[in-house]
Write a structure and sequence with these properties.
nine-stranded mixed beta sheet
């Protein structure tokens, strides 16, 4: 109805010359231009859905807008998904052919007042029906139908994307910001349940301050890492990260960790500032330029040199601009690398080359330093450098060979870094931004569609080792790093230190058009207004709703989720993201 509103109105206007060939040509264009746009959006999800596991919305255009290499990206998609483009043009051609088969005849009778009267009445009736179609209900006391309403009509939440269509999701996100204040609970309950202001009681050391290096690995879903799947007992499981598997033996790893968003642009604010993204990315919102307290800003006050590394063209993903919001003093991108011979032709500098460049730059910096690297090579169209095509091949899905290559790139970085004077005095954090292509059935389950690894490695700290099965998430990395560093001043964070349990371990994210709140033995679903379901953590596909049989847990988790969501939107809208 949205796409065809102009066509409907202009087709039914009570004009006597609407059958005129020129007017019909005008109708042709106002019919096909909007509908072709809608069809393009739907066809994009033929490709994009398998990576994001969600219908696209307006965030998709923000991601593309920030890319400076749009021509290379388009040519890459054309080469890899030519059959989708071919199908699209075939459908459009058939559509136009069928449209033109309908011939509009010019009326021969004399136009009288009855024509204008009945045409006007008919137009009004149709517009009434269109309004019903757009709203989904004639009850004006009810809000118009929205994305979340799809969940009311499915037996499993994951099926809601089948009911939805992509143009509808884009329209619903286009003008309606999800950033709206809520009043669910009291401030006392927020302070008790969420504890947004953290302060660790630790004894600070006068010794040399510890460096921090964070790797955010593109598309590194937990599925690909053997060390994080030992307990899963997946039949015929194959790991694609031999280096990270070996490093895990000397690290503290969290094998029940999840991302707080679905895309790359969601990961950086979650990991570095503890700000998750729900219906829309925080970095795409009108509040993105708010003053933010983050891991970067805190370490800046502690005398750290801070830098952000991303091998893509400067400005890609909006990282350059957002790095300044976070407070990074330096940015190193493709421009600073300044050697296009190592460009992969689509996204940026090959990981091995750029990781080596990062090691060289860090060795020039004054300690203590904090650096973040967001990798690029494990990304569609899933290529590896020519010299490694025989070394990294095979795998069950296309991304596997890229995961092996990026893991190898990390190995080469650590081999070189281990010989530097700063290596032993450094805390390394490695995580994935989101999941990607899925092969094992275990990871097709609703819960595991945001499953990522989190690893902490510190050569000089023998105590920072082991496997932790608690709920963990991206927003926990920021407070955990400060805890490890011995920071004992108050700071703002929605996450918790993974080394402590003053806040009960939990995870919150947004998928299938609902919030997921995970804590203890249960997972709560919340649609933004009310809790809709409670599932045991072993019920990874959300098959058996326990909200009626586990009412105590349902109420308690409902209260916690409401407290989090209320505080999240209130602090962002009020611009109060500092301690």
């Amino acid at each position: 109805m949205y796409l065809n509103i102009l066509f409907i109105v202009f087709s039914l206007l009570p004009f006597k010359n609407t059958s005129n060939p020129k007017y019909q040509k005008f109708l042709f264009y106002i019919y096909f231009i909007p509908n072709t746009v809608g069809l393009i959006l739907s066809f994009i999800d033929f490709i994009y859905y398998r990576f994001k596991n969600a219908r696209s919305n307006i965030d998709m255009t923000v991601t593309v807008r920030n890319e400076t290499n749009k021509i290379q990206l388009l040519s890459g998609f054309l080469a890899n998904y030519w059959y989708v483009f071919l199908l699209f043009f075939a459908v459009v051609a058939l559509w136009i052919f069928l449209y033109k088969k309908v011939k509009v005849k010019h009326p021969t009778s004399v136009v009288t007042y009855k024509f204008y009267l009945f045409s006007t009445l008919f137009l009004g009736l149709v517009l009434f029906a269109v309004t019903f179609g757009i709203r989904g209900d004639l009850d004006i006391t009810m809000r118009p139908i929205n994305i979340v309403d799809a969940n009311e009509n499915v037996t499993k939440i994951v099926y809601s994307d089948v009911i939805l269509n992509t143009p509808f999701c884009v329209f619903r996100n286009f003008s309606n910001s999800s950033f709206v204040k809520h009043q669910f609970v009291s401030k006392k309950e927020i302070d008790s349940l969420i504890q947004p202001i953290k302060e660790f009681k630790v004894t600070t050391s006068e010794n040399k301050k510890t460096n921090v290096v964070i790797f955010i690995m593109e598309s590194f879903g937990r599925e690909y890492l053997g060390a994080f799947n030992k307990h899963k007992k997946i039949k015929n499981y194959v790991s694609y990260t031999p280096f990270l598997d070996s490093l895990s033996n000397s690290s503290l790893i969290f094998n029940n960790a999840y991302s707080n968003g679905l895309g790359s642009i969601h990961a950086t604010p979650s990991i570095i500032a503890g700000i998750p993204s729900f219906q829309e990315a925080f970095t795409s919102s009108r509040y993105v330029n708010t003053k933010i307290e983050s891991l970067v800003s805190v370490l800046n006050t502690e005398g750290y040199e801070t830098s952000f590394f991303h091998g893509a063209p400067n400005g890609s993903m909006g990282f350059l601009g957002f790095s300044k919001v976070l407070g990074y003093k330096k940015y190193f991108g493709m421009n600073e690398y300044n050697n296009d011979k190592d460009f992969d032709g689509v996204w940026g500098i090959w990981d091995e080359k750029f990781f080596n460049y990062m090691e060289q730059e860090l060795s020039k910096q004054k300690e203590p330093f904090m650096a973040t690297n967001f990798s690029v090579s494990s990304h569609d169209p899933f290529q590896v450098p020519d010299e490694y095509k025989n070394k990294f091949k095979g795998g069950d899905v296309a991304v596997h060979k890229c995961i092996k290559y990026s893991d190898y790139s990390l190995r080469k970085f650590f081999e070189k870094a281990s010989k530097t004077k700063w290596f032993k005095n450094t805390l390394f954090v490695i995580t994935g931004d989101h999941t990607n292509q899925i092969y094992y059935d275990e990871y097709t389950k609703t819960l595991n569609r945001t499953a990522i690894p989190i690893l902490f490695y510190m050569p000089a700290n023998e105590n920072l080792k082991g496997i932790n099965n608690d709920w963990a998430q991206h927003i926990d990395i920021y407070p955990t790093v400060l805890d490890i560093l011995g920071y004992n001043k108050p700071f703002r964070s929605w996450g918790r230190s993974l080394l402590r349990k003053e806040v009960k371990p939990f995870v919150i994210n947004y998928i299938n058009n609902q919030y997921q709140f995970m804590q203890g033995d249960y997972i709560l679903l919340f649609d933004g207004k009310k809790a809709t379901g409670l599932y045991h953590k072993t019920d990874t596909n959300f098959s058996e709703n326990l909200k009626n049989s586990k009412k105590k847990e349902f109420e308690e988790m409902g209260l916690s989720s409401r407290a989090f969501i209320q505080n999240y939107y209130e602090k962002i809208i009020d611009g109060n993201l500092v301690n």
